[in-house]
Task: structure prediction
Amino acid sequence: MLSSGDVAVRPMELEDIPLLYAWSKDLEIEHQSGWGPWMSRARFEQRYEEAVRQPSEDFVLLGVQYREALVGYVQLAGLSHVERRAALGFVVADRAVRRQGVGRAAVILAMDYGFSLEDLDRIYAEVYPFNSPSLRLLDGIGFQREGVLRQHDIHQGRRTDLVVLGMLRQEFYARHASRLPGGFSG
Result:
């Protein structure tokens, strides 16, 4: 577990799956993230049980805790140890703790994990242009806007752009101290 104040990230557990399923039905979260078609509860549970029991090498899913309660998650997807990069995704699902710095702290912890423990050189994110909270959060952490993938996704039946943002290891550690013992200090 990595922590910063009241916020911590930790591996997801089987007990977390019912809460993840409830979050997957939240229309506001779906609108901002574009998770796609809903799954049956059985299919959803099967998918996440596999992710918890037998995590793949290219996907890291971490629960976000605030004062020891699970409030969201962060993920590093498409993680490549050859290319040394991953795509960041994050959700603060508990409305009571949104816009209180929980997402920011969790993303910083996940990035420290990715850069230090997974030995990544680059972490990037793809965000819908209308997802202002996520864009502000990533800008505030120090992500650079790298471009726009025009009409890249179909979101709620319509073509939409994706804003691509990225951050390199040296840029991250120039702004943020590692929370890991013996972590990067460069």
